[in-house]
Amino acid sequence: MPGPMATVIWLVGTALELAFVVCSVARNSFFKYFFLNLYILAVLTSSIGRCIFLQTFGLESDQYRYVYFYTDALLTLALYVALISLYSRVFGALGMGKYVRLISVLLLLGTSLFSYAVVAQSEDRLVTNFAYELSQNLYFVGLVLTYILWGAVVKLRESRTRVVQFILALGVYFSAYAASYALVNLASKYSVVVQILAPVISCLLPLSWTMTMWRHSEESRLIPAQLLAVQR
């Protein structure tokens, strides 16, 4: 989505990402949520890199295309790691941290092999196809894992406000992007809609995380079951 609107959305997203890191440092929580901050910093770095390649080589260049798809795959991987770090927080008290890490690595390897197998059957076998396929599959895996984690939060009565809010934000984010990929796969005509919505969706996660980090302390508690209550 080139043009002034894209620039405005990019600036807003960048400001929100910086705000999350600043809030984490100000609230002495940078290392407590290190992998969340690492993901946001990776987003900032890749965003700057994409802008440099875009200005240097142009939107339709092979150089920008490679940078875009591979940074997208790396960012999806970083977000996957951030999700697993939340898994470790929820299941850490049960002494299941090492099992969570083992299962997450196996899932990542399985997803990567599946993505490669899909691309290997393609006639062109472009290397960018693997990055795109990996990102797409990891988003769907992340979506399923996030909902499983939310079920565990309710079942285990996890009450830490920050952890609960971070997980909810991830659920919305993964759902939005998984829906975007599904639309593109359903019909290429929706790709224009996705190009417009994707930059907006990318702002939601840092916005939600920043608000959570700023408004709630590490000691804040809530009851997740109350979030599921339906007004009658």
Order of SSEs, N→C?
A: HHHHHHHH
The CATH topology is Rhopdopsin 7-helix transmembrane proteins
Quaternary structure type:
single chain
Residue windows where pLDDT falls under 50 for at least 5 positions: none
Explain how this protein is built.
- The protein is mainly alpha-helical and 232 residues long.
- The chain has eight helices and no strands.
- Helix 1 packs antiparallel against helix 2.
- It is globular.
- The N and C termini lie far apart (42 Å).
- The mean pLDDT is 81.
Question: Which characteristics define this entry?
Answer:
232 residues; mainly alpha; Rhopdopsin 7-helix transmembrane proteins; 8 helices; globular
Quick recap of the structure?
This protein is mainly alpha-helical. It is 80% helix and 0% strand.
Topology record:
Layout: H1 4-26, H2 34-57, H3 62-91, H4 97-120, H5 127-155, H6 161-186, H7 191-215, H8 224-227
